[in-house]
Amino acid sequence: MTAATVLAALLILTGCAPDDTWGGSGSDAEESPSVPAGEADPGSALRAVASLDVKGRAPKTGYARDRFGSAWADTDGNGCGTRDDILKRDLRGTAFRGGDCVVVSGTLPKDPYTGESVRYRRGRSKVDIDHVVALSDAWQKGAGQWPGRKRVALANDPLNLIAVDASANRRKSDGDAATWLPAYKPYRCTYVARQVAVKKKYRLWVTRAEKDAMVRVLNSCPGERLPGGGSPTEAPARFSAK
């Protein structure tokens, strides 16, 4: 019996196919990583994954959106709500109402989640502002134990916010990297790197499945840099949350 015949027989017995690979909901499969996160280049997102604590998911008990403060609070004090700040940053060809704060129209040239161009029109919007690390996910991985001002900071941190196609955002829901990845494959490395950056910045933990998924994605782009910036991890004293 040849080696190929033996392999074929084993695959039949185990129910596996030669290209069996991991894949979360809404994502294509990725092969398991061959580069340990701790051996990646300094400053890379893959290297930063190693610093994330691994714990089980805490209960969602007590979670509500208002536990992260009023939606789109002006935590940076520039006179505009956070939603409009992100629209101004991510859209092109923007038009405003009554100044340069309230965005009424514009175009998302290439949606990070689908790769398609999406038109924004206030009141009939097909564009959402997504929390890259969903607030519910954050609640179950450390934020439920935080003081209110830290939760307000996370909810309004530009590092954790991007303009995206509304339908794709609804499909994501509160999924983490183990359960959802953008359908637009060229953005996956950037997306996961941003999740790692947010979780590292705010000291949120990850589940084992989530960490493994992050490494799988970033192994395909070991040079992907860990993004930085955003706002402080505590909102000004004038803000509060339950």
What this model shows, in words?
By secondary structure, the protein is an alpha+beta fold. The protein has eight helices and five strands, in the order αααββββααβααα. The protein has helices at residues 3-14, 45-49, 82-90, 135-139, 148-156, 166-172, 188-202, 208-219, and strands spanning 92-97, 102-108, 118-121, 127-131, 161-165. Strands 1-2-3 form a three-stranded antiparallel β-sheet, with helices on one face. A two-stranded antiparallel ribbon has the order 4-5. The longest helix is centred in the C-terminal third of the chain and has 15 residues, at 188-202.
Short structural summary:
With 242 residues, the chain is an alpha+beta fold. Helices cover 31% and strands 11% of the residues.
Secondary-structure map:
Elements: H1 3-14, H2 45-49, H3 82-90, E1 92-97, E2 102-108, E3 118-121, E4 127-131, H4 135-139, H5 148-156, E5 161-165, H6 166-172, H7 188-202, H8 208-219
Antiparallel strand pairs: 1-2, 2-3, 4-5
Helix percent reads 25-40%
Alpha-beta classification:
alpha+beta
Along the chain, the helix and strand elements come as HHHEEEEHHEHHH
Count the helices. How many? Answer: 8
Report low-confidence residues grouped into runs of 5 or more.
1-33
- How far from one another are the termini? 69 Å
Order of strands in the sheet with the most strands?
1-2-3
Features of the shown structure:
disordered N terminus; 5 strands; 242 residues; 11% strand; two-stranded antiparallel ribbon; alpha+beta; three-stranded antiparallel beta sheet; single chain
